[in-house]
């Protein structure tokens, strides 16, 4: 070992606080961080302060269960554990804690937004919890990141589009190109809700221009991004109401009709088709969960159905849980649990494939989300 490295090792082992007796206690987050009489602006700032107290985890591993496709009740229990331990966290845990701390703020809609960016040929992931004051054009967000421009946003944005474009500017300021964003549905305020939140209901892209040879109707740039997000925000209350009323009544529907309620991460080979359908309807200011929209879907149009058509009807294929299921020609006996069957892929925070412990589902090496297709080894941690 060189002399320089020996000095570094000696300094790293030294405890600058050894023998000190008057050190203040480190700050700890509080579950009761706001007063109900406070304004939504101050309440959101108080929630962000608790996330700042926890601080960002720069270690190569995380301390908590990062599985997203589990019940909201379970996620809130993990959030409570995080607040009790007061250990550093990353952006996904921060989103969990943000849900927990805003659970009683029924005047707020909480919408998860995931981002994927690119820099130097590598992809990076991030997630924040956007919030909207119900009935008002006021949007903001809470979260954690290594970069301050990619976390907390005040309740000052008049549209979801403006909020997302502000994050896009933040990415550009740190040398990243924002590739896409995945927007979920408002998370339930029922702390005992037994299904997962819908993390990714639509996926929008910026990086694929439309040409004659490649019309890419699923690319949101061809459908005008601002219009889609404006209509999505306008229809969000009704879409959310239709989702929570219909997600428990899927038993007698065919796969195409059930897909209308699926998180894009649970759509498998049909994710691109379903995302394209949702974006096309939103461009016309129509709800993808409306009765007419669901009646219009055709199972024969699904990519998975086309693939199965070339095989024997007696052949069995694995379903999203990895179990063997009968071909689509068999009667549909799907339960609500099938909506949340597929795992979220790798349990990442800002692109870092952090934990996939023995107790968690196995991770597919290639993942297709909405209009997107990427290989997980290329995803890196945000610098």
From TrEMBL:
> Per its UniProt record, what InterPro entries does this chain match?
VASH1
Q: Which residues form the active site?
A: 91, 126, 145
Q: Biased composition, Basic and acidic residues: where in the chain?
A: 294-304
Segments of skewed composition (Basic residues)? 305-314
| Gene Ontology CC terms | cytoplasm
Q: Residue spans with biased composition (Polar residues)? A: 359-383
Instruction: Region Disordered: list its residue ranges.
Output: 1-31, 294-383
Q: Which PANTHER family match?
A: VASOHIBIN, VASOHIBIN-1-LIKE ISOFORM X2
Q: What is this protein called?
A: Vasohibin, putative
């Amino acid at each position: 070992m060189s002399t320089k490295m020996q000095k570094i090792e000696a300094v790293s082992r030294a405890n600058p606080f050894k023998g000190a007796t008057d050190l203040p206690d480190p700050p700890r987050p509080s579950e009761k961080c706001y007063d109900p009489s406070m304004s939504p602006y101050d309440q959101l700032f108080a929630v962000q302060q608790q996330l700042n107290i926890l601080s960002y985890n720069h270690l190569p591993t995380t301390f908590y269960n990062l599985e997203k496709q589990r019940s909201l009740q379970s996620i809130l229990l993990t959030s409570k554990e995080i607040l009790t331990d007061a250990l550093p966290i990353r952006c996904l845990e921060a989103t969990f804690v943000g849900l927990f701390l805003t659970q009683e703020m029924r005047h707020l809609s909480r919408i998860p937004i995931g981002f994927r960016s690119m820099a130097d040929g590598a992809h990076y992931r991030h997630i924040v919890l956007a919030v909207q004051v119900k009935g008002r054009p006021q949007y903001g967000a809470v979260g954690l990141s290594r970069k301050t421009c990619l976390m907390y946003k005040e309740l000052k944005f008049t549209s979801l589009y403006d909020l997302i474009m502000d994050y896009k500017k933040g990415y550009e300021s740190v040398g990243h190109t924002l590739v896409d964003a995945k927007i979920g549905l408002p998370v339930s305020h029922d702390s005992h809700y037994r299904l997962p939140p819908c993390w990714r209901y639509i996926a929008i892209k910026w990086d694929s221009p439309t040409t004659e040879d490649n019309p890419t109707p699923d690319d949101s740039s061809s459908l005008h991004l601002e219009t889609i997000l404006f209509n999505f925000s306008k229809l969000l209350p009704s879409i959310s109401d239709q989702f929570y009323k219909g997600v428990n009544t899927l038993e007698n529907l065919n796969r195409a009709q059930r897909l209308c309620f699926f998180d894009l991460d649970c759509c498998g080979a049909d994710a691109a088709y379903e995302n394209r359908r949702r974006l096309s309807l939103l461009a016309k200011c129509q709800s993808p969960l409306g009765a007419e929209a669901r009646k219009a879907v055709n199972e024969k149009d699904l990519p998975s159905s086309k693939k199965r058509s070339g095989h024997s009807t007696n052949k069995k294929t694995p379903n999203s849980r990895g179990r063997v299921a009968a071909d689509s020609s068999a009667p549909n006996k799907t339960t609500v649990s099938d909506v949340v069957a597929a795992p979220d892929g790798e349990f990442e925070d800002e692109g870092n494939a952090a934990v996939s412990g023995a107790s968690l589902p196995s991770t597919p090496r290639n993942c297709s989300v909405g209009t997107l297709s990427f290989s997980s080894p290329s995803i890196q941690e945000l610098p």
